[in-house]
Design goal:
- Strands 1, 2, 3, 4, 5, 6, 7, 8, 9, 10 and 11 form an 11-stranded mixed beta sheet that branches.
- The radius of gyration is 19 Å and the shape is globular.
- It has a single domain (2-10, 24-363), classed as Rossmann fold (3-Layer(aba) Sandwich), CATH 3.40.50.
- The chain is built from 13 helices and 11 strands.
- With 369 residues, it is of the alpha/beta class.
- Helix 1 crosses helix 13 (345-363) and helix 2 crosses helix 13 (345-363).
């Protein structure tokens, strides 16, 4: 197994750096496209101005697709590299493919996980990431988008419905092989869709206890939104009613395996619900996570979820699972682009892709196997 991981690690680094294909696996060209999905109303948009689920899709493309570098920021001085892909390429023919849903972190957007989406697509998966309403950087974050975080699981369920109906991808997806992966708040999201149940009072109790850590103070925007949500709970009956739904299960039985990266806020989950999760769960995190410390986050999940696996990357921080930044990006986007000394973000990405591929290949097998 160790040899296989190192071969795949080298393979993925070569693919990221050039057009070289790996002999160890069947590697596809990667196509990328976007969608604006419109779920059935009524839908809880959490105060967002945009009433569509904006999504990015990475998928295996035909062999003559022309991949090109993908960037965030000005064309001449981009801030972030999101890998290589062929925009709107023709999908490769073949059997129905497994689908992996991707959930971004607090205030992020779908493209933040392009490195993982493209890595999965290069090996035969269809991956789709969605901008979560009220909690993405395409528009102002809302109190509802912050406080009603369990509704992110509803977004992923709506994306499954939309992908089933999509004229390009609907007939290419194996609906019996659906997984989900997420970073930070997205890690929380995939645990929720796996069956983790939220009790919002638990987070407050944790942050008032001697065990309180950086989760409670590391993001000033989240602290401000939490204070505003407390005011809304006393003054807004509709918000209070929607908030009261937290204790429901948001499990979607169509999702058969989840991969959580630097998950948070884990203290919000009830231990009983985590202990009842029955699908495979893999967790990865940086040992130096400064936003969601592993003791209250990834390691706690690893202990409470039956048969969960846990991998800690030494010295890595919370944003090691964000796209790779350019030198300009590291100057401008200081928080998400900087890693602790000794961390190689590209190497962590490559190993994480390998872990995710092994995990989803093992746990999203065709029904006949």
């Amino acid at each position: 197994m160790i040899g296989k991981i190192w071969i795949r690690l080298l393979c993925l680094i070569l693919v990221a750096a050039s057009d070289v294909a790996c002999a160890e696996d069947a590697v596809f060209k990667v196509g990328v496209t976007t969608r604006d999905f419109v779920p059935a109303e009524p839908y809880d948009w959490r105060g967002a101005g945009t009433h569509v689920l904006r999504a990015m899709i990475w998928y295996p493309a035909v062999s003559d697709a022309r991949e090109q570098p993908q960037w965030i920021g000005p064309p001449l001085i981009p801030f972030v590299s999101t890998g290589r892909a062929a925009p709107d390429a023709v999908p490769a023919e073949g059997p129905r493919r497994p689908l992996v849903l991707l959930s971004h972190g607090f205030g992020g957007i779908a493209i933040d996980l392009a490195w993982l989406g493209a890595g999965l697509a290069a090996h035969g998966f269809i991956a789709v990431a969605v901008d979560h309403p009220g909690n993405n950087r395409s528009e102002d974050r809302t109190v509802d988008g912050y406080a009603l975080k369990w509704l992110r699981a509803v977004d992923l369920g709506a994306v499954i419905d939309a992908m089933r109906a999509d004229p390009t991808f609907g007939d290419r997806i194996d609906l019996g092989r659906i997984g989900a992966a997420g970073h930070s708040y997205g890690g929380y999201t995939v645990i929720a869709i796996a069956g983790g149940i939220t009790d919002p009072d638990r987070t407050g109790a944790f942050c008032r206890s001697p065990a309180a850590d950086a989760l409670c103070t590391s993001q000033p925007d989240a602290t401000e939104l939490r204070q505003k949500s407390e005011i809304r709970l006393t003054a807004d009956p509709d918000f209070r009613q929607r908030y009261s739904l937290a204790g429901q299960s948001w499990r979607d039985a169509r999702v058969r395996a989840v991969f959580a990266m630097a998950p948070g806020p884990v203290p919000a989950f009830t231990p009983e619900s985590l202990g009842a999760i029955s699908i495979p769960v893999a967790i990865v995190a940086g040992s130096a996570d400064e936003i969601a410390p592993t003791e209250s986050g990834a390691e706690a999940l690893g202990k409470l979820i039956p048969h969960a696996t846990l991998k800690l990357f030494p010295h890595a921080g919370h944003f090691v699972f964000f796209d790779t930044c350019t030198a300009v990006g590291r100057l401008i986007i200081r928080t998400a682009c900087r890693d602790p000394d000794g961390t190689d973000r590209d190497a962590v990405h490559a190993e994480t892709i390998g872990l995710a591929l092994d995990f989803f290949t093992e746990n999203l097998r065709p029904a006949a196997e």
